[in-house]
Amino acid sequence: MAKTNKKVLRIKEIFNKSRNNTRAQWEYVNQKGYDFSNDNQLSERDRIALEEQGMPTFTINRITPVVEMLNFYATAQQPRWQAVGAEGSDVDTAAVFSDLADYIWHHSDGSSLYSNAINDSVTKSLGYLMVTVDPNADNGMGEVKIENPDPFDIYVDPKSRDIMFRDASYVMVRKILPKSHLMKLFPDKARVIKNASGEYKSDDIYTEKATGPLQKDFHYKDIDESETVDASTGEHEELIEHFELYEKVQVPYMNVFYRLLPSPEVLEQIKQQVEVRMAEAQKEMQVQLMEQQQQMQQAVQEGKMLPERFQLEMEKAQQMMQMQLQTIEKEYMSEMQAEASKIENSIVSEKEYKMMLKSDTFKEAVIEAVKFYGDRVKQTIVVGDKLISENVLPEKITDYPIIPFHFKWTGTPYPISAVSPLVGKQMELNKAHQIMVHNASLGSSLRWMYEEGSIDTDHWENYASSPPLSNAFFTIVQEGKGDMEYLAGIYGAMQGDVSAQHDTYRGMLAMDEYGTRRVKQWLKNSIEPSLKQLGILVKQYSQSVYSAHKVFRIVQPSALQEDRQVEINIPMYNDYGEAVGKFHDYGAAQFDIRIIAGSTLPINRWAYLDELKQLMQLGVIDDI
Q: How far apart are CA 214 and CA 56, in angstroms?
C-alpha cells in the first residue's frame, strides 16, 4: 500500500508543479479569446457598469465569422494519408493502410472531432486529438479509435521544445469526473474506484464572462458538483480527480544476428545430395587416373620411363585422388549446409536475450548482438487516491498518443491563438458602438434642467438639439473593421461579400488565390505536421491491436465505388491444414506515413470545372 501511495503522490506532485504561473497566464489569455469567439465579450463588472450608466450592453461580434472561416478552410475535406512500403514485400500491405485509416476515421466520427480540434486551435491556441483503444469493441478483439480531449485538461512538460511534444518527459490528462462514469470506463476496477477518495482543488476557472441573461455559452467548468446527478439514486453525485499520465521510458534491446541451423530432415537431404555429387566426382577422377596411367604405360614401352617410376607415380596418384575426394566431400557438405542455413535478424529485449542465451544451441548460433535503447511509452492511471493501472504500451507504440494542433507555435507548450490579437480591436468596436447608440438615445429624448415657467416647453422640444457626435467614432468603427480583417487574414470577399468582390471572374479567382495564402501557410506548417503525426499514431496502434484476421468495409470511400471490403492478416495453410503464415501481415509490415498536402482545403468547383474544360480542349484528357 505504501508503494502505491508513493506513485499516486508522485503523479499529484507532477500535476501541482505543472500548474505554474506561465500555464495559468496562458490559460487565462486563451480562455478570454474563447469567450470572445462565443460572443461572451462583456465581463460581469462591465455589464453592471454599463447598466448603471444607462448604456446598451450589446456587442458587435466580428470574431465569430473569422473563427468559422478558418474552421472551414481547415476542415472542408477529410484528410488523406499515403503509406509507402519500406521494401517490395510491404507495398501491398502498405496500400491497406489508407483504407484502414479511413475505417478508423469514420468509426470514430473523425470529421466532428477534427473540426472541434481545429476550433480549439483557433480559439484556445491549441487543439488535441488522441489515439486510444476500446478493448471491448468487436467482441473483445479491440478497436482503435480517436478522441478529442479539451486543451485545458492537458498538462505538458514546460521544457518541451518539439512541436509534437515528442521530447516532453511527460504528458498528463487531468479531469474531474463522476464516480459512476469512471466505473463504466474501468468496469474491472469498479470496487477500487468506489472506495477511492481524496480532496481535490476544483477546476481553475479563468473566465470573466458575464453571467445571467448575457451568458451565451456554458463551458464544462461552469458545471460543478451541485449540478451532477446519480441516475441510480437521484442524488448529487460525488466528483473525483482522474489522472492519466504518459511518460517516455528507455528500454534496453538487443539487435541479434544468428544462424538458423537446418533441421534433421534437411540434413538428411543434404547428405543425399552430397553423395550424388561425390559419386559424379569420383567417376571423373577415375577416368582422369586411367588416362594418366595409359600415358605413363606408353612412356614405359618407349623406354622414356622406368617401370619402378611408373609404379611409384601410380601409387601417388591414387593417394592424391583419395585426399581430393575427402576434401571435396567436406567442401560440398559445408556449402550445402551454408545454403540450407539462414542468417536471421531479430530485435528482442535484453531480458529476453539473456533468457535465450541459456540455450547452448542458440548461444552457438549467435553471430553478433548489438545493444541499443528504444523509446517506450508508460501509461499510469490514478483515480483519487487509488492507482488503477500502470503498464508500458506495446513496443510498436513509441510516441505519445496525444497529438497537438497549434495555431501559432512559439517553441513552447504555450502557443498563440488566432483570436487573441483580435480581442483589443473587438473591445474598441463594442465601445464605439455603445457610445454611438447611447448618444442617439439621449438625442431622441433630451434631458435639460430649467426653472419651471421660464421657457416655452413646446417650442424648446421642437427646436432644441443635443450636441452632434464626433465623426471620429464612425471612423474608428470603419478602421476597426478593416484592422480586424487584416489581422485575421479573413476578408469580406472570402465570405461572399458582393461589395468587396472583383468585377471579373478571373479577378475573383486571383483574389481567392492570394487571399488564402496566410491560411495555407498555417495549414502547411502547423496542421499538416499534426495530421501526419496522427497517421503515424494510427499506424502504431493499429499494428498493435489488429493482429488477428480482420475484415472491414468502407462505405463510399470514393465516387467510383460505393463500398470496398478489405482484409488483413489472412491465414495461409499448407496441404496438411497447418497455418504457415499470413497474407497481408499488417503487424509485420514496415512503411512510412505521409499526409497528402492540401487534402483538407476546399476546392473551387467552378475553377476546377474550367480547368478540366481547358485540358479537354487541349487534348490532355479525353471525354470519358
A: 12
